Amino acid sequence: MEPGMKILFVDDLNMALRTYQLMCASIDGVRTDVASSGQEALELLEQNNYDILFTDYNMPGMNGVALIRHARALGREMKIVMISATPPDDHGADDVLEKPVGKGLKQFILAHLQQRKKVQK
Length: 121
Fold this sequence. Notes:
The protein is of the alpha/beta class. It has four helices and five strands, in the order βαβαβαββα.
């Protein structure tokens, strides 16, 4: 198993997706995919294995809570993180990062990448 980490970011705002990808570009071993809707994310989740799913809460169509419910139903082991300024109490995510995420996103990813490397040794 390779020591890298594969991450899926889901947000209906393209600027947010670009920002997340730029934050991750400088982290060795991290590969990212993006989806601009819950439905697009589900298609990627069915075709790929991810270590972390970051999803926005407020999205048209399928919101972040519905996406989390569907993602959990796939039965895959992955950390799920909601990114939101106003997350609901019953979000179903493992963690929440409040918008704007800033350096917190990169620190979160680095911590999980480090933990993953220790487990694989």
